[in-house]
Amino acid sequence: MEQIVFVTNNEHKLKEIRSLTPRTFRILSLSDVNFHQDIPETSPTLEGNALEKARFFHDRTGLNCFADDTGLEVDALGGLPGVNSARFASDHDYYKNMVHLLELMNNIDNRKARFRTVIALIINDKEYLFEGIVNGHITREPRGNNGFGYDPIFIPEEDTRTFAQMTLQEKNQYSHRQRAFSKLIDFLQASFS
Ligand code: ITT
């Protein structure tokens, strides 16, 4: 069985990725490999941050790994919060960040947005990037209690419910993370089978 470390401190991302992983792979968390250092995220792009997180871990352990950097990009705000999604109003306070975005968009009719995930993979010392996008729009108020982050205010264009009104499996059908991760899995299966 192939083992690979997911370089994240976000339990929700870990749960989503594990739910998408075929039985032939085993996803290890940072605590599974006893890695507890603070991981920097200083780049102005999702690609740069995903690579920075994966490289930071790989440089210190030599283990095969991948990292996910995700942003919510709102058209009318020129792509904000984008790479700053985790700290738009307040660091990792999902509720405050969501309310801040809704307030900024109070008088905006163009609600178009997309989630974009970039996954950086380092395997056998080589680096690869995979991207996943889901287009949709921002609601006027939060709906639903599932998921995390901006899920209560994002409706993918393929559905009428927010991600937070969906089960994990339903979100997985459309999600940015699923789209990026399935490319990674296809790549690993093609390269190492
Ligand atoms: P790691 O860097 O440790 O992986 P993080 O939460 O800091 O975890 P990001 O830097 O990628 O991850 O931050 C992206 C933010 O965007 C995250 O904190 C959420 O607020 C939001 N986000 C990411 N994926 C999301 C999803 O699937 N649904 C809703 N919001 C999401």
What does this molecule look like?
34% of the residues are buried. The longest helix is centred in the last third of the chain and has 17 residues, at 176-192. Strands 1, 2, 3, 4, 5, 6 and 7 form a seven-stranded mixed beta sheet that branches. The chain has helices at 11-19, 46-61, 94-104, 168-174, 176-192; strands at 2-6, 25-28, 65-74, 81-82, 112-123, 126-138, 154-156. The protein contains five helices and seven strands. With 193 residues, it is α/β, with parallel strands linked by helices. The chain has one domain (2-192): Alpha-Beta Complex (Maf protein), CATH 3.90.950.10. The mean pLDDT is 97. Bound molecules: inosine 5'-triphosphate. Inosine 5'-triphosphate (ITT) binds next to strand 3 and helix 3.
Task: Based on the model shown, name its key terms.
alpha/beta, Maf protein, binds inosine 5'-triphosphate, 5 helices, 193 residues, globular, 7-stranded mixed beta sheet
